Amino acid sequence: MSALAPPKPFKSYAELVALLRGRGMAVTDAGRAERKLGQVGYYRLSGYWYVCRALCRDEQGRAVLCSTTRRPRREDRFLAGTSFDKVFELYLFDKRLRLLMLDAIERIEVHVRSVVAHEVGYHDPLAYQDSRFINPKQTRNFPDRHTGRQRNAWSDWLQRQNDQVSRSREDCIDWHRKANKAMPFWVVVEAWDFGTVSKYFEMLKGTYQNRVCQRLGINNAAVLKTWLQELNILRNRCAHHARIWNQTTSNPLPGLSDPYFHTLGMDAGAGSRLYGLIAVIWFLVRRIGPSSQWLHEIANLIATKPDLPGCTFAVMGFPDESGFPGKLFGMN
């Protein structure tokens, strides 16, 4: 194994502010900039000013790709109009966006857990322990691609859910534990996280998947499976304070052929960006709570997006640079 390249040298907050200024970023208040770097961290904020850095181009003017990431390389030079204050506004914008996403995802997660427990628990209160409700292919052993050891999706899931229940301190679970009573489906789901319920839905036999889908107004279990997986990824990014405003997914959201999506002006890339996630979340949220004002809160927040070079509505998946397309959703 070759030796690692040495790390970049340490710089004080004052030196980092000077570095940003030297690269063309406008910093009107150096003291404030130093405080914000101390509060948030240089590299955390660098994810927000990255889009403001000029692209490296070859002699023909084409963007040069990075040999490591295969994405366009950026110069250590900021585009005109880049300011530290606007970058920090973008950071706060992203934070508020995460909070709104978590609010909606919580409603979806809780509702899906309840529906799964009801529709499957109807047949057996202990169905979550019974492989008869699981697609047989999910109960077959397969070799782990990294270790070569035999694994089993159903066994792996059952161990995960058992661990979550054993760690839970929810009152209803604690009562059953102390009373030495078997825990029915509608109790144990209180210990499940989004990943656990998402995987359980994926493993269910089609009959039970379809019953859950009907409750959510969806006619394709494969679509809901992918939606839940992507919403779980988004939920984890939000919960761990990761940047979401311009993130993309390598697994575009399916279901955009539904009539609901036809009116939303989505191009082929929208399903890989935030706009696609917002559309899917709203499809589910309005089914759960028709009086929800969540989409209005999203639209109001999107209208406050800071104006920075490279910080476009297009990278969020919206149809054009006019902002959130509220009229396409029937908003006044």
TrEMBL record:
<dbReference type="InterPro" id="IPR011664">
    <property type="entry name" value="Abi_system_AbiD/AbiF-like"/>
</dbReference>
<protein>
    <recommendedName>
        <fullName>Abortive infection bacteriophage resistance protein</fullName>
    </recommendedName>
</protein>
<dbReference type="InterPro" id="IPR017034">
    <property type="entry name" value="Abi_system_AbiD/AbiF"/>
</dbReference>
<dbReference type="Pfam" id="PF07751">
    <property type="entry name" value="Abi_2"/>
</dbReference>
